[in-house]
Design goal:
Layout: E1 3-5, E2 18-20, H1 22-40, H2 63-82, E3 86-91, H3 97-110, E4 115-119, H4 120-129, H5 138-147, E5 150-156, H6 163-178, E6 183-187, H7 196-202, E7 208-213, H8 241-248, H9 254-272, E8 277-281, H10 288-301, E9 307-310, H11 311-320, H12 330-338, E10 343-348, H13 355-371, E11 375-379, H14 388-394, E12 400-404, H15 417-427
Helix pairs in contact: 1-3, 2-3, 5-6, 9-10
């Protein structure tokens, strides 16, 4: 019949009870797994497992990003085996968040754990549709989502944040928070961008394990160096400290050569250990941008790519976010710039100084000044030409070091032969 009775003494909890035989239990288990997969919305994601996830990403990505990915993989795998608390996976598009979330869900279903995998916009659409669904009520569907053993919410933050949507999401998360039900959330938002009531639950260190993935978009190999979409560093890939050396061999006066030598030394020291602010001032073509790019390229090769932006281009990016056709949001873009671990601002002073520009630049500089975040600035303007609120930060010697490059525009020409012969006679 497919049942067995345990041979145990009278009084044992299992005495007289029928239990499923191993062969039948295996059959029931397989049927349950198929049913759970059908209910979990994982049909299209069954191929996303821990076995086919690259724990350190593609070969060639910076070491820090590889370590970030490996840590996320380790934490996700451990979570799948315990399902204790909540797991929040943060990172840019294409970094592997959804793969890891789906791998957790697939593993849970294989262990007969009732699971729901839902992208947040689809979840909200599903709830809205249930108002008109004759086969199930809204209350039934809503109860299923908030009480399921394991809930995975993918792409949190991409939903249309109407008051109704915010309220439903809060009710779901709050119920699972109170009852300590397992939850996995993936998002490309920072915590401060999330609705305050939900954010307060996601910040509970006793319940939530937050993992930030800093890996590049695997779908876009051209960004493997980890540069932001704002970064202009791709334009200056050949600018290194080595390619700056011919500049020092030009026909320069001792004073000009000394100013360049000090600037190069300061740039190299900063590249080794970015601390405080470093400002390069001087005429166009004197080498300011070259040294700033050399710092950026050095840090990138060390696995810590900075954010390198040209100030007028940055402001254009920020203005463009006000257009309804641009998917990027102003607050997110501005937050990326002002909180960058290392920010390089090229060509400060060439922007048109409207009141809006003046205010945004001040907010940017003031935030990084108060947070003492490493920053490199290049400008052809004198201190007197810079907005006084920004200037007051640039003259703070406790944080900021300024180097004036007293050299004419770089021509790429070597010293004249007579100068070189004279130099050799002196050495002899």
């Amino acid at each position: 019949m497919g049942y067995v009775r345990a041979d145990v003494p009278v009084g044992h909890p299992d005495f007289g009870k029928l239990q499923l035989c191993v062969c039948r239990r295996r059959s029931v288990s397989e049927h349950m797994r198929r049913r759970l997969f059908a209910l979990s919305n994982l049909d299209a994601l069954q191929h996303l497992t821990f076995d086919n996830f690259e724990p350190r990403g593609r070969i060639g990505i910076p070491a820090e990003q590889a370590r970030s990915l490996e840590r996320a993989y380790t934490v996700a795998r451990r979570y799948a085996q315990t399902l204790k608390g909540w797991l929040l996976l943060q990172g840019n598009y294409g970094c592997g968040k959804t793969h890891l979330a789906a791998a957790i869900a697939n593993f849970a279903v294989s262990m007969n754990v009732p699971t729901l995998f839902l992208t947040v916009p689809d979840l909200l659409d599903n709830l809205r549709f249930s108002y008109r669904d004759p086969e199930s009520t809204f209350e039934q569907r809503f109860e299923e989502v908030r009480t399921v053993r394991l809930l995975v919410l993918d792409d949190f933050g991409t939903q249309n944040a109407t008051p109704w949507a915010q309220e439903k999401l809060f009710q779901i998360l709050n119920y699972r928070y109170i009852n300590r039900l397992p939850l996995v959330v993936t998002t490309n938002l920072s915590l401060r961008e999330i609705e305050p009531r939900i954010r307060s639950r996601l910040q509970d260190p006793e319940l939530v394990d937050l993992v930030e993935i800093r890996a590049p978009d695997y779908r876009n190999p051209s960004r493997d160096l980890g540069h932001s979409a704002l970064s202009a560093l791709d334009l200056f890939g050949e600018k290194t400290f080595g390619t700056f050396q011919p500049r020092l061999g030009e026909n320069l006066s001792p004073q000009e050569r000394e100013s360049l030598r000090k600037a190069v030394q300061a740039a190299q020291d900063f590249a080794e250990e970015p601390r405080g602010w470093l400002v390069f001032m001087g005429p166009y073509g004197s080498g300011k941008t070259h040294l700033a790019a050399a710092i950026a390229n050095y840090r990138t090769r060390a696995g810590r790519p900075p954010l390198f932006v040209i100030v007028p281009d940055l402001l254009d990016h920020l203005r463009a976010t006000f257009s309804p056709e641009v998917p990027a949001r102003f607050d997110r873009l501005f937050e990326e710039v002002r909180t960058a671990p290392l920010l390089i601002l090229d060509d400060l002073g060439t922007q048109a100084m409207t009141p809006w520009v003046r205010e945004k630049l001040y907010q940017l500089f003031n935030y990084r000044y108060n947070a003492e975040l490493p920053t490199v600035i290049t400008t052809a303007s004198s201190l007197e030409e810079i907005d006084e609120r920004i200037r007051s930060r640039l003259i703070d010697r406790r944080l900021c070091r300024t180097y004036v490059l007293q050299a004419p525009p770089y021509t790429g020409e070597a010293p004249p032969p007579s100068r070189r012969r004279k130099s050799r006679r002196k050495k002899t």
